[in-house]
Amino acid sequence: MLLSDVRRIGRTALPLYLSMVAVSLSALVNTAALGRYGTDALAGFAVTVAVYFPAMAAVTGAVRGVMPFVAAKADDPPGLVRVVRDGTWLAVFVGVPAAGAVACVPLIAQASGVSPETVGQLGPFPMLMAIGVLCNGFGSMATSSLVGLGQSKIVLRAGLVGAASIAVLSPLLVAKLGLNGAGIALCTANLVSCLITVAGLRQQLPGRPNLRIHLGQIAALAKVGVPLAGTVLIKLAVLGVLAIAAARVSATAAAAHNIAAAVASLTFTAAVAIGQAVVPIVSTRTDARRVITAGLLITATTLSAISAVVVLGNVHRFFTEDPAVVDAVAHLLGLLVLVVLADGLQAVLGFGLTGLKRTTPSLVVFAVCYGVLAFGAIPAARYGLTGLWVALAAANLAVAVGQGIAFRKAGQPLQHPAPS
User: Is residue 155 within 8 Å of 77, Cβ to Cβ?
Assistant: First the structure.
């Protein structure tokens, strides 16, 4: 039984992981194109994505709350249509404010003391990125629904097409239009991915959802999704504090920390894919602990294999030629593996709680553990990067333990009434 769960999780997770990797690699192409165009354009991009990335993460996290509801209604066509309708409205309610925040980047930048030259570079770029956030809201809702239905291959198709759009359009448009060209490329990629996932989801529905608003049922979805969004925002904010703490050590430490964090993030993506694959199984089975055991097993195995490639392949050398930075990252590799493994295990446990529709404990655990990390970052930086990464590893281990305790207390899946 455990082996069959491992195979089922793997079949769903692999397309999701490949899609995420493709999107991450295409983002590097976009950044490289801007870097070649000019420093001012890259600075304008950095200012905008400081708001854009948290907005995207919040929207994506919020609409992930539909996964267990969709999985529970997979054999109830009318119920499935209602869940998708309410999930679409949830995407509107969280996507519009997030897009508004991105559109206000010029005002935020001015208020934050960003140089007039950089603000002047923005032009319509924030508005293009705001449109991308809206598209991402609908696309992420459709993606979560497809994952809940076990249709991750459609998600892979959307991710590959979106990544290809950026990879092709960014070099061409940035060379002619600069920052606005990057905005058009990213907006187009989000729109294309959204259309593919929405069309794929539409094919899975027996009827067309109406536009009626049922606030109580949308609130039931938000009760699961909003804590997920909060968890992501807390993590991003505290990781930002760590980056600042590393910069206080030295320029070399800051560069090494950013490279190590980028490698860890790319490796951790596999755990996110596996965690999402776990949600629909947990939400429809009575042996949730066995499913999570299978998820943890495949996560530990996968992350260990990827980490071995990272360490033995000296992947960090592809990011810099500075020998001091290379040495600094090399000294962090052991801690990097520990950080990734702990983060991956807590992520799967957190998604298990999502399958049980109990995401508030995850938010509380993250707020406590990462709150302590945020306050301890500057003191830990007195011991250099090693101190910072020891603190991060300890925080991730604490989160994993907390998530495990919360999942154990949650017991069997709760029978929440699905939106109707």
Answer: no
Measured CA to CA, the distance from residue 341 to residue 343 in angstroms comes to: 5
User: What band does 351 get if pLDDT is binned at 50, 70 and 90?
Assistant: very high
CA gap 233, 317 in Å, rounded: 30
Place of tokens 């998530």: 403
At 332 the three-state DSSP class reads coil
What's the CA gap between 6 and 298, in Å, rounded?
7
Contact 72, 415 (CB under 8 A): no
Q: Which two tokens stand for residue 224?
A: 């699961």
Contacts of 84 (CB under 8 A, 6+ apart): 66, 70, 145, 201, 205, 209
- Could you report the per-residue pLDDT of 170-228, keeping only the tens digit for each? 889 988 888 889 899 999 999 999 999 999 999 988 877 777 888 888 999 999 999 99
Phi, psi values for residue 314, rounded to 5°: 50, 50
d(CA 282, CA 71): 9
What is the torsion angle, in degrees rounded to the nearest 10, for the CA atoms of residue 15, residue 25, residue 56 and residue 363?
70
CA 186/CA 189 separation, integer angstroms: 5
Distance of alpha carbon 237 from alpha carbon 370, whole angstroms? 9
d(CA 294, CA 297): 5
CB distance 351 to 276 below 8 Å: yes
Residue 314: strand, helix, or coil: coil
Average pLDDT, the chain: 88
Cβ atoms of 129 and 186 within 8 Å: the answer is yes
Residue 51 contacts residue 101 (beta carbons within 8 Å): yes
Residue 358 backbone dihedrals phi, psi, to 5 degrees: -130, 75
- Give the tokens for residue 38: 């000019």
Q: Which tokens go with 340?
A: 């990734």
Q: Which tokens in the block code for residue 412? A: 């069997």
Residue 126 confidence (pLDDT) above 70:
yes
Distance in Å from the first CA to the final CA of the chain: 33
Q: Which residue's entry shows tokens 């629909």?
A: 280
